[in-house]
């Protein structure tokens, strides 16, 4: 076996370009598979991190049965409820809840001076900052008094303030224009890591009633408890409260772990699709190995004839070419894994991509298997060459 490996490397040294091109296909295939899985895991980690940042155990009420197949999020979708002020006031009566936050959400152009940025308006009450564990970089957040007065004020996310005022802190006490209405900036939030929150203008929900939210409804309602043991009780009480106005399929009550579990299931399917896409590259690389090895057999026909003439058997020739195919695949797979690791390492400060050990092992063994599968045909052809005809081949 050692002699076969050494002989393979001697041949690779003689044909460097052919060796590089053969391994390149497998390297790209393994790189694609591992990177796609790493990015899928990174997205899953990112969402899990966002949930971990919440200051309380969160329960979210959505319109419609969002866990039903084919359901959609948002007010009025799938025959869902349109939550309003009355629902909010009814939910405030639940003593188990430490936080009750109505949430209106809209993508909209936000302007300041001559700058314009497509961000989000979030209408909520003063509890959103504690519930979502949002900290101010400068200024303050709004209060109950601001909500009752319908104050035309806003707290800006870090990225939004940066886009509009270059330096986020410069946005304090400045004016932003939304839907031709001016709002005074009373606070800037620290960078959160959630793009939607970092590009949001958070306002009292009463302030957005009217031109920004003409229907005076809510996208969802967030409730939170400080004690995790009270989550199930809170869910039951929410359901009982809402059933007085709506049917069971008109709303969904989900805690953050259920939402995360649903997201994880979605990502499991997405990962399988990504692996299938990446596997196409591996198959293409395998076909490349077969073609190159087949050409190599033709090129080395006389060498095979001489080996057979001096005593090499058919299995000896078969193993010689099969060993070369497997080594090329493993080399390509190893380089693909190394490159994927470096890319993930570079992206980790910006995005929590992660390499899964299972993916690494599968990609490595698949690359070796491809060498065997696609190397068998040209190896068998070489082994079956008649010695006399092979020696005479020019």
Quaternary state reads single chain
The helix/strand class is: alpha+beta
Largest sheet, in brief, is: 10 strands, mixed
Overall pLDDT metric? 82
Note the gap between the termini: 30 Å
What is the number of E strands?
10
Radius of gyration: 31 Å
Residue runs with pLDDT of under 50 for 5 or more positions: 71-78
Share of β-strand residues: 15-25%
* Element string (H = helix, E = strand): HHEHEEHEHEHEEHEHEHEHHHHH
Principal-axes geometry comes out as: elongated
Specify the number of helices: 14
Task: State the helical fraction.
Answer: 40-55%
Task: Indicate how many domains the architecture comprises.
Answer: 2
Main location: membrane
Membrane topology: Multi-pass membrane protein
Domain ABC3 transporter permease C-terminal: 276-387
Family: Belongs to the ABC-4 integral membrane protein family.
Short description:
By secondary structure, the protein is α+β, with helices and mostly antiparallel strands. It has 14 helices and 10 strands. Helix content is 55%, strand content 17%.
Topology:
Blueprint: H1 2-14, H2 16-52, E1 57-63, H3 85-92, E2 99-112, E3 115-124, H4 128-131, E4 136-139, H5 144-149, E5 153-156, H6 158-165, E6 175-178, E7 181-189, H7 195-198, E8 200-204, H8 205-208, E9 220-225, H9 231-242, E10 251-255, H10 256-299, H11 301-309, H12 314-347, H13 357-383, H14 387-392
Parallel strand pairs: 3-8, 5-7
Antiparallel strand pairs: 1-9, 1-10, 2-3, 2-9, 4-7, 5-8, 6-7
Helix pairs in contact: 1-12, 2-10, 2-12, 2-13, 10-12, 10-13, 12-13
GO cellular component, one term: plasma membrane
Keywords: Cell membrane, Membrane, Transmembrane, Transmembrane helix
Subcellular location: Cell membrane
């Amino acid at each position: 076996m050692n002699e076969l490996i050494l002989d393979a490397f001697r041949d690779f040294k003689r044909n460097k370009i052919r060796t590089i091109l053969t391994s390149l296909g497998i390297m790209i295939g393994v790189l694609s598979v591992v990177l796609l899985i790493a990015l899928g895991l990174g997205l899953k980690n990112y969402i899990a991190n966002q949930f971990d940042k919440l200051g309380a155990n969160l329960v979210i009420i959505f319109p419609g049965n969002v866990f039903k197949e084919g359901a959609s999020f948002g007010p009025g979708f799938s025959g869902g409820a349109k939550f309003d002020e009355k629902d909010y006031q009814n939910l405030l009566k639940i003593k188990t809840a430490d936080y009750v936050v109505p949430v209106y959400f809209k993508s909209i152009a936000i302007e300041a001076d001559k700058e314009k940025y497509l961000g989000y308006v979030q209408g909520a009450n003063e509890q959103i900052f504690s519930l979502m564990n949002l900290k101010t970089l400068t200024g303050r957040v709004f209060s109950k008094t601001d909500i009752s007065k319908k104050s035309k004020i806003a707290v800006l996310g870090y990225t939004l303030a940066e886009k509009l005022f270059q330096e986020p802190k410069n946005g304090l006490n400045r004016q932003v224009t939304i839907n031709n209405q001016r709002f005074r900036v009373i606070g800037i939030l620290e960078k959160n890591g959630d793009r939607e929150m970092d590009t949001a203008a958070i306002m009292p929900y009463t302030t957005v009633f009217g031109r920004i939210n003409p229907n005076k409804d809510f996208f969802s309602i967030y409730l939170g408890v400080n004690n995790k043991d009270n989550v199930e009780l809170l869910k039951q009480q929410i359901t009982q409260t809402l059933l007085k106005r709506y049917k069971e399929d008109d709303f969904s009550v989900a805690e953050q772990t259920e939402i995360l579990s649903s997201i994880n299931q979605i990502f499991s399917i997405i990962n399988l699709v990504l692996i299938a896409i990446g596997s196409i590259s591996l198959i293409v690389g395998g076909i490349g190995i077969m073609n190159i090895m087949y050409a190599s057999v033709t090129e080395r026909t006389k060498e095979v004839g001489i080996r057979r003439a001096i005593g090499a058997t058919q299995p000896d020739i078969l193993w010689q070419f099969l060993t070369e195919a497997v080594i090329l695949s493993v080399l390509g797979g190893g380089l693909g894994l190394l490159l994927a690791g470096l890319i993930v390492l570079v992206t980790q400060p910006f995005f929590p991509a992660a390499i899964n050990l299972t993916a690494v092992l599968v990609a490595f063994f698949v690359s070796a298997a491809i060498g065997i599968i696609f190397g068998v045909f040209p190896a068998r052809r070489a082994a079956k060459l008649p010695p006399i005809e092979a020696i005479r081949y020019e």
